[in-house]
Design goal:
Shape: globular
Oligomer: single chain
Strand order of the largest sheet: 3-2-1-4-5-11
Order of helices and strands: EEEHHEHEHHEEEHHHHEHEHHEH
Length: 369
């Protein structure tokens, strides 16, 4: 870690977790998260208004915790990065508003960055600089995508995406059918370890010779699993929960890894990065490793804590923006719930100095130490 590497604070509020990370270059200094998942669990899913209010309450304490953990003052920062999209509009707005306030009061450049590109960039904090191009499989509650990134700060190309349910969404829905609670991913992963992945032959969506080679579909799988469970219950038979979990999970990770390895081969890329919340799934990691080794592909997967939404990933991409001298965002930056992955960040219309000397110094002292 060099002292001249960019020191950046990142804010992530795209869904139900308030994440604040601080990095210097590619070194993680702090990763503070305040999650509202327990509040949403009683409703069986994320409630946008509750998430937004939770972000409001957690924002300043989480930023202060991150600064303390990193052992720095806010004035030491070289920039503020924030997820400007995609995500829940209200939740994003809280993070963007906070980032703009900090950037304005501290007279620091602001970088509105893409949530999906951040999930790719976070791997730099664990395995060093990303190869160029990078092939990435992103799997989460809202996204299942295959992306090729020649330059993570300016050039991200979608090769394929889900046409219906995302992988994480399917996990949550099947967990609900099995009465396993929310979120569904961790509990299905745990139960699947005790089940037989070959017990039930659930379908693999979009894997036919005429199907889109890199797109995903999990809606049919979800319906097939639900109907199988309903048939068992209608017949008065006990549902083998562990076998269902293992067979369903195998169907998901089989398709994900098969298509990802194919994309690497087709594009001539000798490595694969997997990110997003579902990348924490133990079977996905194991099968990906197995198939990548067989294909001569190097696998890069961040540790589970960096796969789920966090501020560290936003700070990592922000630091890369600073290092590559990308144009900062304007203070007019807005939240964009449908920001396309082809826009890794939202540059301002004009390069300008951050001149806010008219901000009362006493107000800065009240806000930041």
């Amino acid at each position: 870690m060099a002292a001249d590497e960019p020191l950046v604070l990142g804010i992530e509020t795209s869904c139900d977790e308030t994440g604040v990370g601080i990095v210097r270059g590619t070194t993680l200094l702090a990763d503070a998260v305040a999650s509202s998942v327990d509040t949403h669990a009683r409703y069986g899913g994320v409630v946008p208004e509750i998430a937004s209010r939770a972000h409001l309450e957690a924002m300043v304490p989480t930023i202060e915790r991150a600064l303390k953990e990193a052992g720095i003052s806010a004035r030491d920062l070289d920039g503020i990065a924030v997820t400007s999209g995609p995500g829940l509009a209200g939740a994003l707005l809280v993070g963007v508003s906070a980032a703009k306030a900090y950037a304005y009061a501290l007279n620091k450049p602001l970088y509105g960055v893409n949530h999906l590109a951040s999930h790719i960039c976070v791997d730099q904090l664990e395995h060093g600089p990303l190869p160029e191009p990078t092939m990435a499989l992103l799997v989460s509650g809202g996204h299942s995508s295959l992306l090729l990134a020649p330059d993570i700060t300016s050039d991200v190309r979608p090769l394929g995406a889900t046409i219906d349910d995302a992988a994480g969404e399917a996990f949550d829905k099947i967990a609900r059918v099995l009465n396993l609670g929310f979120p569904g991913g961790p509990v299905i992963d745990r139960l699947a370890k005790e089940g037989d992945p070959k017990a039930i032959a659930f379908p693999r969506g979009l894997t036919g010779p005429r199907d889109a080679p890199y797109d995903f579909s999990f809606s049919g799988l979800k319906t097939s699993v639900a109907r199988w469970i309903e048939a068992k219950r209608a017949a008065g038979e006990e549902v083998p929960v562990r076998d269902v979990a293992a067979s369903f999970q195998e169907a998901v990770v089989d398709v994900l890894t098969r298509k990802a390895v194919r994309a690497c081969k087709d594009e001539g890329v000798d490595h694969l990065m997997i990110g997003g919340g579902v990348a924490a799934n133990s079977r996905l990691r194991a099968l990906a490793q197995e198939r990548c080794e067989r294909a001569g592909i190097r696998l890069r997967v961040p540790r589970p804590g960096l796969c789920t939404d966090n501020g560290a990933m936003v700070a990592a991409l922000g630091a890369e923006m600073v290092a590559r001298n990308r144009r900062p965002s304007d203070l007019e930056l807005s939240a964009d719930s449908s920001l396309p992955v082809t826009e890794p960040h939202v540059p301002g219309k004009h390069q300008h100095e951050h001149d806010h000397d008219h901000v009362h110094e006493i107000s800065k002292d009240n806000l930041y130490s």
